[in-house]
Amino acid sequence: MATDPNRIVREAVDLAIRERGEIGIQVAAYLDGKQVVDVWAGLADETTGKKVEPDTLFHVFSVTKAVAAVALHIQAERGLVDYEAPIARYWPEFARNGKETGTVYDILVHRLGVPQMPVGVTPELMCDWDWMIGQLEEMRPLYEPGTKCASLGYTFGWLVGEVVRRTDPKGRPFGAFVQEELCQPLGIDNIWIGIPDEAEPRVAKLTSTPPEPPGAPGMPPGVLYNASMPRHIGPTGEVFTRPDVMRACIPGANGLMNARSQARFWGMLANGGELDGVRLLSEDRVRMFNVPRAPCDYDAVLGVPHRGSVGGFWLACGRGMAAAGGNPRTFGHTGSGGSVGWADPDARLGVAITHNRMFPTPTHMWGTADDVNPFVPIGNAIREAVGA
Fold first, then answer.
1. Which of 42, 153, 342, 344 places its Cα 20 to 30 Å from the Cα of 129?
2. DSSP class of residue 277?
3. What is the second-level CATH architecture of the domain 5-212+225-386?
4. pLDDT reported for residue 222
């Protein structure tokens, strides 16, 4: 490991701000269960000049799904959830309109057939947990569960969260479960799925992805993309910086985190499910998190083959994971606009990159082209700095 890993990483972060359009960034990394990188730079709000601080909170969008998935795995670890069981075993009202055979595993691998958001959904209704659960209960699957892949862009969070809530002996709201059973044991203080009022002043101002010009080599969405994330509730600043949305529990999309806390989460996974003497998951269970889901078939939402794992994570070869490097055993998750975190179990390296300038994720960014993805040089610098 370099004498000063932060210096090497800071150079890459400064480059991303100076030459690649980034506004504010945090980067943190854990190696062998110890924090080895902690860098922050740029502006949390470019309209006021407010600087990024270590406790600045950033929108991470679908990176939140990784936290939701681990909450479900905690319940499985405790013998409260069987991946192969029908969802209806834990949530009887779900067994309606053709969803009776859908399993917990079908949620994790995005083959449940209910990627679509309910008719009539609004940002306000998306904040209403009971309304969303009732809509999912009545929903008809677009495909027979278990037969075809269609990413559960938003619905993943409520599906996982309700299974966790139903199997929690205390019956806690999902956001409370995450705080009490995942964050608090690990000493994580800045992973939120629904922020408390006092955290709002620390949230960085989000700059949404600008519209791509005609002819740009953008990601061709699948046939169900707009059904999964309708434009009026899409992953934009207009929607996700609303006070009610930031305070709601939307486990598929509205995580607010800083890099220190998120890296601690990934560091636990990279360390085989344990950190600082606290074990949340067995090593055997964590080893399944980078097992590719099979088949790697066409995703009707994303419009590309689905390169996820059986544990509900993205693999390093998957969408937006270029910064994570080339190890096929690395797993993590990306979020709209580029936020990313990952765990490399071979290097025992956990990394989080948070930022406030959403950038587009065209198809050619899914590879390793560092001239396109501003986070690839940062990922390379982290691995250089820590000798991974």
1. 342
2. T
3. 3-Layer(aba) Sandwich (3.40)
4. 84
**pLDDT < 50: residue spans in the chain:** 217, 363-370
CA dihedral defined by 295, 298, 304, 305, rounded to 10 degrees?
10
Residues 6+ apart with CB under 8 A from 27: 9, 13, 37, 38, 39, 40, 259, 351, 352, 353, 378, 382
Q: What gap in Å lies between CA 373 and CA 377, rounded to an integer?
A: 8
**pLDDT score, position 4:** 93
The token duo for 29 is: 């990394």
- Nearest Cα to 156, choosing from 64, 227, 75? 64
Helix residue ranges per DSSP H, the chain: 5-19, 64-77, 104-108, 123-126, 129-138, 155-167, 174-178, 184-186, 225-228, 237-240, 243-247, 259-270, 283-287, 376-386
Contact between 169 and 264 (Cβ < 8 Å): no
Nearest in space to 112 (alpha carbons), one of 125, 99, 121: 99
Distance CA 225, CA 154 (A): 11
Calculate Rg over the CA atoms of the chain. Answer: 19
pLDDT of residue 328: 92
User: Using one digit for the tens of pLDDT, what is the confidence trace for 186-196?
Assistant: 999 999 999 99
Tell me, what's the pLDDT at 213? 53
pLDDT computed for residue 367 by the predictor? 43
Q: What are the domain boundaries of the chain?
A: 5-212+225-386
pLDDT at res. 366: 43
Q: Whole-angstrom Cα distance, residue 260 to residue 166?
A: 31
Q: What's the rounded Cα separation, in Å, for the pair 321 and 319?
A: 6
DSSP per residue, 99-121: -TT-BHHHHHTT-SS--SPPTT-
